[in-house]
């Protein structure tokens, strides 16, 4: 009889703990977010070859942002899928009008599967161009991503990995 009582208490404890866990996104469905800040931490750079250096990358990513989302958080049983979409720099040197290079930005994405109980994500190497330093929840409608990403800086005429602080706000 004691075994049955302890077993029932154990099951009740497990069930009640599952709902208490804070997960990244706290989601039971899909949520969509838009980039509202994209700041370089240390320097100012020129990514779009307009000869103007900026620390606010929203000014550099010309013709990139549109009406779609930049982050999707999708609940998936005991995990959450985080789908990030970031500006990818495409440089073309075959246009007569732009002998120093013509730049376009397109969406480039990657997805990470995390445990529901995770409250943040740290030090994740995604590929040779992207490293998540920290992804965390600011409040119920905002997240912050600190990302190391490689871009070509036309001011220094070199590729370099810079640290960016990106803020995502929920899309209603």
Structure, described:
The protein is mainly β. Helix content is 11%, strand content 49%. It has one helix at 2-20; strands spanning 31-40, 71-76, 79-92, 102-115, 120-125, 130-139, 142-153, 158-170. Strands 4-3-2-1-8-7-6-5 form an 8-stranded antiparallel sheet, with no helix packed on it. The longest helix is centred in the N-terminal third of the chain and has 19 residues, at 2-20. The N and C termini lie far apart (53 Å). The relative contact order is 0.22. Residues 2-27 have low confidence and may be disordered.
- With strands numbered from the N-terminus, the spatial order across the biggest sheet is 4-3-2-1-8-7-6-5
What is the beta-strand fraction?
Answer: over 45%
The Cα radius of gyration reads 21 Å
Low-confidence stretches: 2-27
- Which oligomerization state do the chains in this entry correspond to? single chain
Strands, total number: 8
What's the number of helices? 1
Biggest sheet architecture: 8 strands, antiparallel
N- to C-terminal distance? 53 Å
SSE ordering:
HEEEEEEEE
Structural class: mainly beta
Summarize the structure.
The protein has 172 residues and is mainly beta. It has one helix spanning 2-20; strands spanning 31-40, 71-76, 79-92, 102-115, 120-125, 130-139, 142-153, 158-170.
Features of this protein?
172 residues; mainly beta; 11% helix
Q: Which SSEs are present, and which pair or pack?
A:
Layout: H1 2-20, E1 31-40, E2 71-76, E3 79-92, E4 102-115, E5 120-125, E6 130-139, E7 142-153, E8 158-170
């Amino acid at each position: 009889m004691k075994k049955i009582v302890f077993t029932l208490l154990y099951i009740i404890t497990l069930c009640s703990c599952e709902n208490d866990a804070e997960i990244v996104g706290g989601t039971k469905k899909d949520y969509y977010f838009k980039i509202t800040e994209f700041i370089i931490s240390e320097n100012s750079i020129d990514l779009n070859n307009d000869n103007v250096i900026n620390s606010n990358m929203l000014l550099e990513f010309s013709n990139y942002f549109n009406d779609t989302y930049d982050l999707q958080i999708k609940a998936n049983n005991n995990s959450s899928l985080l789908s990030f979409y970031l500006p990818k720099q495409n440089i073309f040197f075959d246009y007569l009008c732009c002998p120093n290079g013509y730049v376009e930005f397109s969406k480039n994405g990657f997805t990470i599967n995390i445990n529901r109980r995770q409250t943040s994500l740290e030090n994740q190497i995604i590929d040779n161009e992207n490293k998540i330093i920290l992804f965390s929840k600011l409040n119920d409608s905002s997240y912050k991503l600190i990302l190391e990403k490689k871009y070509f800086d036309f001011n220094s005429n070199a590729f370099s990995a810079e640290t960016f602080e990106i803020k995502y706000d929920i899309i209603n």
